[in-house]
# Entry
Amino acid sequence: MARARTSLGQDLLWRLEALAYDGVTALARLFPIDTVSDFGAWLLRRLGPLTSAHRTAERNLRIAFPNLSQAEIDALLDAQWAQTGRNFAEFPIIDRIVGAGDRIEIVGAERLAEIARTHEPVVFVSGHLSNWEIMPAVIAHSGVTCHMTYRAANNPYFDQRIRDNRFRYGVRLFAPKGGDGAREVLEALARGESVALMNDQKFNGGVAAPFFGKTVHTAPGPSRLALRFDTVLQPMSVQRLDKARFRVIVHPPIKPKKSGDRTADIAASVARINTFMEERIRERPAEWFWVHKRWPNDTYARKRR
# Structure
């Protein structure tokens, strides 16, 4: 129905954007993997500081690390732009990274093998760490049947290309965010299949919980699902080792506590996820996606004073 209301001009613009992506993808696939990754780092280190997102990243870093000097903040900003550039440049060639066989190290692979063997439905949780697209590829290749949630792009032609690209590196099952996606996730868990959700971004109306010493609002969805289906939250993270080489870590599962007070249990579980994310970010601060506004607006307002 939404497509029927799209203007001719908007549709043409979307098609041109998709064609531009096709051109970038075709070009990227002509070059060695590390060359593509290096180019992305080089490009965003130069262009990123010229954007409004640079100011957002700087404010986020000052909220999270108030004791850092200006020189330390500047170094982290430069490093995170290089990281972000690598992520975007690598997306069209992730199937090549996954298929190379020697570019991804997995810590805790036995846990994924256990989930696949027992058909244990779990709720995978993670955040925008390093190249986060590597994680669903690892889950898919482990033999775990898992529905990956994602926010569909506004441009339907571009969105189809994203889905097709993920299909190339093994991600077959998608559950778009929204009403239909929520229904798919519930049905998947009811069938004994797993789901995977990112749980590190601002969610207005979400559960208030600490994050770097400040209150943030976090989506309660993963915690609600784990409690509803009496299963575990299965955290994962990814680290960049060098250029387009990665370490994926399957962390110990988090079993939500069931006290009988569902609201309190969800809040406690969300707080544990926030703690997990904060620990990962503190370990490797340059590898988190700093350009989104994670804290409430009043936190930024106070920071400007």
In short: The mean pLDDT is 94. The longest strand covers residues 233-242. The beta strands are 104-107, 123-126, 146-150, 174-176, 194-198, 207-211, 214-218, 233-242, 245-250.
